[in-house]
Specification:
Layout lengths: L15 E8 L15 H17 L3 H6 L6 E8 L8 E9 L5 E10 L4 E10 L13 H11 L5
Antiparallel strand pairs: 1-3, 2-5, 3-4, 4-5
Length: 153
């Protein structure tokens, strides 16, 4: 079994997960017909957007609340290439954090179920002056409460 990028938080609810399907487009491959390594960060974003929309913490929600959430850290571990027109799945996993940060983990597999890559991103919540928030924005604190009560499963 693969080790998670994030340590479990004692007393936290289980991670939230969402899987979406995609197909490799021509613009995503290099001259060897292989998905260019930099595209995987974009695939991670596809998963983040879908999970955020599903659970009420979309980029639009952060924009409305005037909370920038830039990527602070990204890691990608490659195992098997994707090729033009390959079908694949992006599993996005949101891990609990008590801090004003968002910890996402990703698992990309091809149509045969073979592991393509894994990775993680950490996003920090900032104020309008781009300082790191030390407390949770109210809308995100409410999201965490719903998650903790099991209302998001």
């Amino acid at each position: 079994m693969r080790k998670s990028y994030f340590r479990p938080v004692k007393g936290a609810p289980p991670p939230l997960c969402l899987t979406i399907s995609r197909r490799v487009r021509f613009e995503e491959v290099d001259s060897m017909n292989v998905v260019w390594h930099g595209r995987y960060a974009s695939y991670f974003e596809d998963g983040r957007v879908a999970l955020g929309n599903r659970y009420g913490i979309s980029y639009s929600d952060f924009i409305r609340e005037r909370i920038p959430v830039p990527i602070r850290q990204i890691q990608i571990d490659y195992y098997h290439p994707l090729m033009f027109e390959d079908d694949f799945e992006i599993k996005t996993i949101l891990h609990w954090s008590d801090a004003a940060r968002i910890n996402f983990e990703y698992v990309i597999s091809n149509a045969a179920g073979k592991l393509v890559c894994t990775g993680c991103t950490v996003q920090m919540m900032l104020d309008q002056d781009l300082n790191i928030l030390l407390t949770l924005p109210p809308f995100f604190a409410a999201f965490l409460e719903r998650w903790k009560r099991g209302e998001l499963a």
